[in-house]
Amino acid sequence: MPGTESVDRANWVSALEQLTARHAGDAVTIELLDDTYGDLDEAERVPLSSVVYDPRDDVVVVAVGAASGDSPGMLRHLVGHPTGVDIYETSAGAALRVTTEGSTMIVSFHRG
Asked: What span, in angstroms and rounded, lies between the C-alpha atoms of 19 and 95?
């Protein structure tokens, strides 16, 4: 799936499940670009556990880290009431952009 894909809301659940299947365990960096708080680094090069969209609560959840091993624990970053999901993939890695009013979360996937 090389290139950029703006995912229709109806497909968010399956697209994020597929993204998780392709990248579970890959190191990821999570950045938050927020109109109020500025740019924040949430996590840097920690293993991806999952990316899911919960339509009932209207939230995208990115879970990183591990309950054991080298990671200090599990971190979950939530984006409530997202307005857009974009996925960019190349042979070198991938990126996920989740937008909501006033902020953008970017998850960069690092292979190898």
From this structure: 10
